[in-house]
Amino acid sequence: MSFDLSKISSQKVKAIPGGEAVEMQSFWKDQNVAIIFFRRWGCMFCRLWAKELGEIYPILKKNNIRLVGIGIEEAGSKEFVDGKYFNGDLFYAEDKSIYQTLEFKRFNLVSIITSLFWKQSREAIVKGKSLGLGGDLKGDWVQTGGALLVGPGGRLIKYFTQTGPSDHLPNSDILKKFQL
């Protein structure tokens, strides 16, 4: 699957904490970057993905690959930061336009509840609970997310969209795509 980064390059996200607005293209201007688009800050699956990314953060950092996490809204971000779930830089989108432009789908009530019974979701729930990650229902709980792996100057390496709430790009795939 491919995506034209110019569609989002001038869109802005706000830093957590601080609220400084930056353009998306600033992330990939001069370096490799892994950008994770989380569903919700209070989502246990998102917290689990963030924690798992911590396992490869030292490798990414050593190889000058920036790790960025973006949420669809500010709601719940304080708890996410306080929980120290993510080792990279955090931002939030002021509106849903970035997620819409990236074509991240939205669940409906039936599909979100049904997806919680998928094997992948059940396994993630067990793992998240064993790590004490918790979660809450704050924010937009029907939005999906994904990831962009981008090289310097905006060369798209990987475009990933979630098909379910617990779906995520495995660490091994991220390292492989960055040839690590």
Biggest sheet strand order reads 2-1-5-4-3-6-7
Integer average pLDDT: 89
Ends: how far apart? 22 Å
Secondary-structure element pattern, one letter each: EEHEHHEHEHHHEEH
Share of residues in helices:
25-40%
Which spans have pLDDT < 50 for at least 5 consecutive residues?
none
Enzyme class: oxidoreductase
Main location: cytoplasm
Catalytic activity: prostaglandin H2 + [thioredoxin]-dithiol = prostaglandin F2alpha + [thioredoxin]-disulfide; prostamide F2alpha + [thioredoxin]-disulfide = prostamide H2 + [thioredoxin]-dithiol
Subcellular location: Cytoplasm, Cytosol
Structure in words:
The model has no long low-confidence stretch (mean pLDDT 89). Helix 2 crosses helix 7. The longest helix is centred in the last third of the chain and has 12 residues, at 119-130. Strands 2-1-5-4-3-6-7 form a 7-stranded mixed beta sheet. The radius of gyration is 15 Å and the shape is globular. The two termini are 22 Å apart. It has helices at residues 25-28, 44-53, 57-62, 77-82, 97-101, 109-115, 119-130, 171-177; strands at 12-16, 21-23, 32-37, 65-71, 89-93, 146-151, 155-161. Helix content is 32%, strand content 22%. Strand 4 (65-71), helix 4 (77-82) and strand 5 (89-93) form a beta-alpha-beta unit. The protein is of the alpha/beta class. The protein has a single domain (5-177), classed as Glutaredoxin (3-Layer(aba) Sandwich). It has 8 helices and 7 strands; from the N terminus they run E-E-H-E-H-H-E-H-E-H-H-H-E-E-H.
